Amino acid sequence: MFDQILKSTAPRICVIAAPGSGKSKRVLIPKASQVLADTTIDPRNVLLLTFSRLSAKDLRARVAKLERVPRASTVHSLCLAFLLSENSHGMRDRVESILLEFEKGTLIADLKLIFPNIRKQTLGKMLDAFAAGWAVQPHDKVFEEDDVKRNFKSAIVNWLSEHQAAMMEEIVYGAVDLARKLGTCDFIQQPQHIFVDEYQDLNRLEQEFVELLAADSRLLLVVGDPDQSIYRAPRKIPLANSPRI
Length: 245
Description:
Layout: H1 2-7, E1 12-16, H2 23-36, E2 46-50, H3 53-63, E3 71-74, H4 75-85, E4 98-99, H5 104-114, H6 120-136, H7 147-162, E5 166-167, H8 171-182, H9 186-189, E6 193-196, H10 204-214, E7 219-224
Parallel strand pairs: 1-7, 2-3, 2-6, 4-5, 6-7
Helix pairs in contact: 4-8, 5-6, 8-10
């Protein structure tokens, strides 16, 4: 089965296979190695992506053994690098100061001054829910259900602007939004051979960023198993018109 993938010249390939079947070891890395065997292809144009830092570390260790080494990263890190590479966008100054977990206590304390009738513990839970929403949904759809949530959202946005800070959870949305606005740019067009491990564990926005990256690429190969998604509902597996193995 995996030999078919290595022989395939299709520009879009989706591999759905069970855990332990060798998706990374027998498909992703060998296919990347096969691409890099062509010395006319710059390793900087070959990109391996995954969802977690641990998975990215594992990918980097595996490709380090190749004669020509491609890039390997989490989608989130790539999104941050993209935002830092461009100057003309609303998050440019804020993204250099990411709000760390321990710093959220200061934000909650300031929110308490704005919402004195809401307990700090409740504000913390609201902040977690807001951040989780910003990580996976368009920002104009998050915390819009009632006046309390809208006022809470406005207070956070104003606080981040005043302190020239960004939340870690808004990085992917910011990258997707910027990529849409720019249309084409060197950063987005540089990856020409894109490999994505454990695709089912990317959230909706991360998947969209991959799709924007791959719009003009020569190859997009994703591997995963929807049944093993870390999310409650299986994430979509893309490439409806591509070979599925």
